[in-house]
Amino acid sequence: MSPTSYATRHRWIYIGAIVLLVAFVVVGLLQYKAVRDTNQAQEKANRLADELAAAGFTRPDPTTLARALGEDGGIVCEDPASALKSALWKQNLSNGATGPGQRPVIADRRTVEAEALVLKVYCPDTLQRIQSELKDLKTDLTVRREDD
Fold first, then answer.
1. Which of 59, 41, 61 is nearest to 121 (CA)?
2. pLDDT at position 79 over 70
3. What pLDDT score does 41 carry?
4. pLDDT (0 to 100) of residue 33
5. Would you say residue 3 has pLDDT above 80?
6. Helical (H) or strand (E) element with 4
7. Exposure pattern of 81-113 as b/e (b: 16+ CB <10 Å)?
8. What does DSSP assign to residue 31?
9. CA distance linking residue 94 with residue 105, whole number of Å
10. Helix axis angle, 109-122 relative to 124-136, nearest 10°?
C-alpha cells in the first residue's frame, strides 16, 4: 500500500476530527460565557438581597432576582431618567385605578428606597442622574410593616 493512498483513505477521518475539535471549542467558549454571566448575575443579586435586608426589607430570593434582573439590571436600567420612563414610573405610584379614577398619591418612602437600591447595585451612574427626582417626590411611611 502506498503512502498517498493511506493518507487519501483517512483524510475524511482527519477532517471529521478537526471539525469536532472546533465544534467542542466553540461550545466550550459559549458555555464559559454563560456560566460567567450567570455568576455575575448571582453576585449582583446576592449584593442586592443583602442591601435590601440591611435596609430593613425582607430578604428576597437571590435566584429570583438574578433571573429577573440578569447581570445588567434589565429593563430597570434602560435609561430610567428619560422623560417617558420617569412618567411611567411616577404613574405606577398612583392609587391603582385606571382612567378618570386614577389619582396621584403620597408614595411609600420604602418603595422609593427599594427602587434606589436596585439602581445603586445594577446601574449606579443612573442613580446619580435620577437622585434629584427621587428627592422631589412627596413620600411618607404610608404602608404599615408587620413590626410597626
1. 41
2. yes
3. 85
4. 65
5. no
6. helix 3-54
7. beeeeeeebeeebeeeeeeeeeeeeebbebebe
8. H
9. 5
10. 160
Q: Give me the numbers of helices (H) and strands (E) for the chain, helices first please.
A: 5, 2
Residue 100 grid cell: 378618570
More confident residue, 97 or 7: 97
* Residues near 5 by beta carbon (within 8 Å), at least 6 away in sequence: none
Grid cell in block for residue 26: 466553540
Q: Per the structure block, which three cell numbers stand in for 143?
A: 404602608
Provide the grid cell at 87.
412618567
Whole-model pTM over 0.70: no
Which residues, in sequence order, are bridge partners of residue 139? 107
Closest among 114, 60, 71, 74 to 92, alpha carbons compared? 114
The three three-digit cell numbers of residue 144, written as one number: 404599615
User: What is the Cα–Cα distance from 49 to 147, expressed in whole angstroms?
Assistant: 20
Report the distance separating Cα 51 and Cα 69, nearest Å.
15
Residues 6+ apart with CB under 8 A from 53: 59
